[in-house]
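Purpose: get a first structural picture of the assembly so the mutagenesis plan has something to point at.
Setup: four entries, given in the order below. No constraints added.
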Amino acid sequence: MTPVTLRQMRAFLAIVRLGSFTGAARQLHLTQPALTVQLRQLEQALGVRLLDRTTRTATPTRIGAEFARALAPLLAELDTVLERVQDHAARRTGRIDLATLPSLASTVLPAVIARLRVSNPGLRVRMREAVTGPVGEMVRAGMVDFGIGGSVKEDGELEVQHLFDDPLLLIFPREHPLAARRSVTLHQLLEVPLLLPEPNSGIRHAVDQAFAAAGLPMEPAQEAVSTGTLVGMVRAGLGLGVLPSTAVEMQVIPDLRALPIGDPPLTRPIALVRRAGRSLSPAAEAFLATLRECLALRGDLRGFTTPSRPLDGKKP
Amino acid sequence: MTPVTLRQMRAFLAIVRLGSFTGAARQLHLTQPALTVQLRQLEQALGVRLLDRTTRTATPTRIGAEFARALAPLLAELDTVLERVQDHAARRTGRIDLATLPSLASTVLPAVIARLRVSNPGLRVRMREAVTGPVGEMVRAGMVDFGIGGSVKEDGELEVQHLFDDPLLLIFPREHPLAARRSVTLHQLLEVPLLLPEPNSGIRHAVDQAFAAAGLPMEPAQEAVSTGTLVGMVRAGLGLGVLPSTAVEMQVIPDLRALPIGDPPLTRPIALVRRAGRSLSPAAEAFLATLRECLALRGDLRGFTTPSRPLDGKKP
DNA sequence: CTGAATTCATAACGCGACTTTATGGACCGC
DNA sequence: GCGGTCCATAAAGTCGCGTTATGAATTCAG
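Result (structure tokens, whole complex):
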């Protein structure tokens, strides 16, 4: 007892629609004997005669007609389901859920999304800024397809892939003496009041480590939770701030200047964080592909999103 | 680009349900490599990864999960549709629409239906008594699956198949002199006032032809449209009536007697009438099978339905 | 009424797909 | 660490499916 196949049922519906084996064969790009065999198999599998054939034409049996009526919408729906899946495959449809840092969310990633909308207009992106929990945790919990952030440790569940290095910049009022220089050293930073992000942030981690590696004792004058407040404090004259270039792009306005720190320049790593062993959706793959395109285009991220608003004319 | 098959989708759902290739393989009575290949083909056909396999387990991708959610109810419904068709095939389900004569409808066929209910309890029979139009026309119009009646001419559209001969009986009050005899001849009928059905009925046709064949001039004393009124007229003393045995079984009560007419006995033919080139539903086939069983059991129809109410003790 | 054309059914044959057996690699649990 | 389990891959046999060729039956035209 061979099972009923989709092929057989599609053939059956075609024959019923056209009332003819030969016609259906033409439409299905098959020969007529193939259809004859298909239908015989279907009838054998079901145990019922579905079509009454004369030598001239084929008309459905009562049961055949009922079957066709029930079958047609089912197969149509099945086809739409398959098409929907294939739309995902072709990146014509899909949603990307990602977690990232606020700075990236408002600078780099919008550019990527814009580019994505050109190549894959059907894709929708939902960015979650990692305010509630670290990027890694959101990925681990399955809340997002992947994350883009820094300083996530790879383990059995998470797979981390370096994307680029985000330079850290020193932010200060343009009247400050440093404004004449093209860069600053770590030593120079020891002599000014430093405003740094809070201790458990990726930026702070990178800064602390740089000073530690250089054997220099650093004590921040002030700490800030958000980049916005940090910029505000700089502007208020409380000190000189350290921010990633992405965050700077987001907030700096003409009354402030920014300089790279150290040589080689101090950076924080930005990486792709994904669940180990889990494949990404085609939509997510497309997103990452355009992200990498963007990175390849410029090497790094400075001035990435806002070429029309140059950062102090200081780009190398 | 090979097409998606039911087999592949069933395999996919099984794997998703069990979270395991090996388990699904056991359930489907296949080997695990077969499932691996099936799923790879499905994924290739769709262009999407549906399952993320570790060496330990298989978990659906986001898209795979959506697909499975949409697919499962569809396939379930498809299966019920197929089962419904197979129920028809197995004669577990089905409706028989047939046209027949009032006499048969109330005598022979109920017995057939009763027998059918034993062997195929799921079948339902809808008998239409051919009062509005001749049985043949109802069959020709497709109002019924088949008809059981007499004197229908075979043509390109109708196929007629003899079933049995229904004896015609002479009905008269038990006080009548003929009550002593075991049969009557056509000659004897010429000497009594005859009550016959209307001219275009099958019975009348058989009677007229019998007299014509014998070269005897016959003139009915009265004509009746329904068998009921004919019996009433006999009972009222208007004459002696001629009725088919089936109709007699239906109506005769103790004050009347019935005798076969002529030797060999006068009969009317009862035939199966079906559309030429159209197959019958399994349900209809089952009905006809039990009808033939009933006929084979007794050779003809006399006393068929009411063995508990013997017809005058006159059965051969 | 006869012949051409069309339609469905059948037979034979060749290709391709599917399944099984055998084996390898990765991970889990004891 | 070692056996057991699970998925992936390769090779080989079998079966099914489709095409070509042909037949039988019916329709239509002349």
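The interface with chain B takes residues 3-7, 46-49, 52, 54, 59, 61-63, 66-67, 70-71, 74, 77-78, 81-82, 84-86, 88-90, 145, 277-279, 281-282 of chain A (CB under 8 Å).
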